[in-house]
């Protein structure tokens, strides 16, 4: 997208979403020449979390690139909060891997 197209798309977004997107893009602009963009992502590989006999998260794979916004949708008990808790390090995964900015979580 050109800068003008990106600005136009932001105007169509909810104001809170647009402000957060601007903030994320500003951080990306300060990160340097982009050579290390591959290290500035969130990557989940075969993420799994089991509580006793209950599988809360089953083999989730995804990556989030710099500047992207990601939402997790699902019913109560689908594992959304468990995924976030694993990304932030509050819970350890039963299996799989999490990488944030090139570092294993």
TrEMBL record:
<dbReference type="InterPro" id="IPR003439">
    <property type="entry name" value="ABC_transporter-like_ATP-bd"/>
</dbReference>
<dbReference type="InterPro" id="IPR027417">
    <property type="entry name" value="P-loop_NTPase"/>
</dbReference>
<keyword id="KW-0813">Transport</keyword>
<protein>
    <recommendedName>
        <fullName>ABC transporter domain-containing protein</fullName>
    </recommendedName>
</protein>
<dbReference type="GO" id="GO:0016887">
    <property type="term" value="F:ATP hydrolysis activity"/>
</dbReference>
<feature type="domain" description="ABC transporter">
    <location>
        <begin position="58"/>
        <end position="103"/>
    </location>
</feature>
<keyword id="KW-0677">Repeat</keyword>
<dbReference type="InterPro" id="IPR026082">
    <property type="entry name" value="ABCA"/>
</dbReference>
<dbReference type="GO" id="GO:0005319">
    <property type="term" value="F:lipid transporter activity"/>
</dbReference>
<dbReference type="GO" id="GO:0140359">
    <property type="term" value="F:ABC-type transporter activity"/>
</dbReference>
<dbReference type="GO" id="GO:0016020">
    <property type="term" value="C:membrane"/>
</dbReference>
<dbReference type="Pfam" id="PF00005">
    <property type="entry name" value="ABC_tran"/>
</dbReference>
<dbReference type="GO" id="GO:0005524">
    <property type="term" value="F:ATP binding"/>
</dbReference>
């Amino acid at each position: 997208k050109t800068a003008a197209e990106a600005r136009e798309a932001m105007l169509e977004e909810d104001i809170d979403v647009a402000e957060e997107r601007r903030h994320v893009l500003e951080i990306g602009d300060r990160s340097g020449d982009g050579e290390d963009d591959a290290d500035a992502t969130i990557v989940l590989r075969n993420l799994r979390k089991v509580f006793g006999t209950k599988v809360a998260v089953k083999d989730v794979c995804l990556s989030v690139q710099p500047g992207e916004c990601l939402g997790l949708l699902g019913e109560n008990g689908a594992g959304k909060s468990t995924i976030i808790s694993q990304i932030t390090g509050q819970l350890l995964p039963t299996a799989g891997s999490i990488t944030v900015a090139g570092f294993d979580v």
